Amino acid sequence: MAMARLFHHKPQFAILDECTHSVSVDMEGYIGNHYAGVKYLDNVQLEHILEREGGWDSVQDWMDVLSVGEKQRMAMARLFHHKPQFAILDECTHLVSVDMEGYICNHYAGVGITLFTLSHRKCLWKHHEYYLHLDGRRNYEFKQITEDTVEFGS
């Protein structure tokens, strides 16, 4: 009995439920969620996992099946589904290509999600209006990003 408490169990879901990060849908909601799920996976270039892993209803241990970059993009797909007003992204795209990162940032802006991005990649600056630099000594700098800033930050 004591041993059972040591193990954490994450329930396994179908890829549609992983994408929309919701409870399993009934048949009435399946079609709408299916269409939305395709769109969200397409937004982050993950539509190939549907064929690779057996379609929408495939239930897998996604922590083992998806690469780290695919897991990051799945998290991005969930944000497209939930459409929060604000999203804080902490190094969430460091294992995806710079092109994909830019595409995702532009797409978030297009659906009205304001991003707060923590990243060491200065190439992201062109997708933001302001930057906050913390120097580790209780000093900070908060400035608008200009063309000169983006060029310097690249």
From TrEMBL:
Alphabetized InterPro entries for the sequence:
ABC_transporter-like_ATP-bd, ABC_transporter_sub-D, P-loop_NTPase
Asked whether the keyword Secreted is assigned, the reply is: no
Domain ABC transporter intervals: 43-93
Query: What GO molecular function terms would the record report?
Result: ATP binding; ATP hydrolysis activity; ATPase-coupled transmembrane transporter activity; long-chain fatty acid transmembrane transporter activity
Task: List the keywords (alphabetical).
Answer: ATP-binding, Membrane, Nucleotide-binding, Transmembrane, Transmembrane helix, Transport
User: What GO biological process, any one, is recorded here?
Assistant: long-chain fatty acid import into peroxisome
This entry carries the following GO cellular component terms, namely: peroxisomal membrane
Q: Which Pfam families match?
A: ABC_tran
Q: Which family does it belong to?
A: Belongs to the ABC transporter superfamily. ABCD family. Peroxisomal fatty acyl CoA transporter (TC 3.A.1.203) subfamily.
Q: What is this protein called?
A: ATP-binding cassette sub-family D member 3
The protein's organism comes out as: Myotis brandtii (Brandt's bat)
